[in-house]
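Predict fold of 5-deoxy-glucuronate isomerase; 266 aa.
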Amino acid sequence: MPTPLLRHPTAADANGRLHHITPGNAGWTYVGFEVHRLAPGAGLTREETARETCLVVLTGHVTVAVGDQTFENIGGRASVFDGSPWSVYAPPGQRLVVTSAAGAEVAVCTAPATGRLPARLIPPEAVGQELRGEGTNLRHVRNILPDTAEAESLLVVEVVTPGGNWSSYPPHKHDADDFPNETALEETYYHRLARPGGFAVQRVYTDDRSLDETMAVGDGDVVLVPRGYHPVGAPHGFDLWYLNVMAGPRRAWKFTMAPEHAWLGW
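Predicted 3D structure, encoded as tokens:
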């Protein structure tokens, strides 16, 4: 029986939308996530009344207008593996208009907000980069909207995991509202593979195993993490990229490792 945690891309709709994840269809409260593949000359217009947006330019070039600001011809990656992205933060109550002369792919990440922050451009040089882990646990992290950057609810990050390595590992969870030890954060994983024909593996499970799903993830799939531990494995020969979107009642990333894995260190 298919798991509701694994979402495959659909055929593009009139707006080029491949994924449409809302709190309603995910069965949770905070995170919204969409992916749009814009044809040459196409555009996307949206206005959120009570949600902030982080628009991540996955590939191609776009022009983004938010309120009275316009960010011309941003982006440029041929692949999501090609360095840090350009992104735009948009508060609720301001119209967001995205256009692309030559075509592009964009991710639309949303979460509840009141509108106390202004719109802004997040260029690649503002994206913090770090290496996390070692050996076959090494991965490359690009912090687009970490908890040290200004936003009301959203946390957004890209991760590149070399083939043969593990990521989001050792297994960790952030489903308990127990600050400063742990924060409750819903999360989506949007997965892309560097070459066709491969797959990755993601497990989502809780200590009591009331939730325990192991999924073979293909290029373009999204995995929902409502709670529990959620490690990812990238088989040899197939580098893996994913975009994480997190949000919850407190904007901080505090997690707990699975007790039997904690000896490994982060």
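The chain has a mean pLDDT of 96.
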